[in-house]
Amino acid sequence: MIAQLVRFVLGPLARALYRPEVHGVENVPLSGPVLLAANHRAALDTGVITFATPRQVKFLGKAEYFTGKGLKGKLLAGFLGGLGYVPVERGNAQAGLAALEAARKVLDAGGVFAIYPEGTRSLDGRLHRGHTGVAALALATGAKVVPVALTGTENLQPNGAKIPRLAKIGITFGKPLDFSRYEGQDYSPAIRRSVTDEVMYAILELSGQEYVDTYHKRPNEGAA
């Protein structure tokens, strides 16, 4: 019920308030497994994608967000579930495999799953090298990959702002990428890298960002 509230009430309200520029939404297949691969500018990117996509979208979310106590905890869990978050344990050696498995279940069921190949938000505004999880999922499930470019979302909630601000934002869906030519080669590191690079190049063409061929380090990560 909360999912319907988010999709059919909050979604239209958000679109009316922020008036995002949405392009290429017809590129999102209306049936079958679809993997949305997006650049990542801000924490609110997930909401923008959810409200702009014609189908229900699933994302990964920290499991602890769903285990809060009392009414507040239940409301938060329900709201996040309505946005499409799938709870996954993080912070252990099996976290990466668990995340891929959760995503694969959505795609195997013919659903839509969104992923940020950079792995974290871009703090410098540039597009960074993609991790190969996006390729692993596409190759294992046969899902079409739709590149997605978000613009302006970093201005919705600048550092220190507790309430989202009005800002000009845009989301562009590129043409679906089909990697069926690599069927049966999903365990090849070289193929995964090639597929990931193709996806990142498609995002780059849509977003117009500067590209950096290195992984983006999180703020708490030291130099490799």
UniProtKB/TrEMBL annotation:
Keywords: Acyltransferase, Transferase. SMART domains: PlsC. CDD domains: LPLAT_AGPAT-like. It holds the Pfam family Acyltransferase. Transmembrane segments: none annotated. GO terms for molecular function: acyltransferase activity. Residues 34-153 form the Phospholipid/glycerol acyltransferase domain. This is Lysophospholipid acyltransferase family protein.
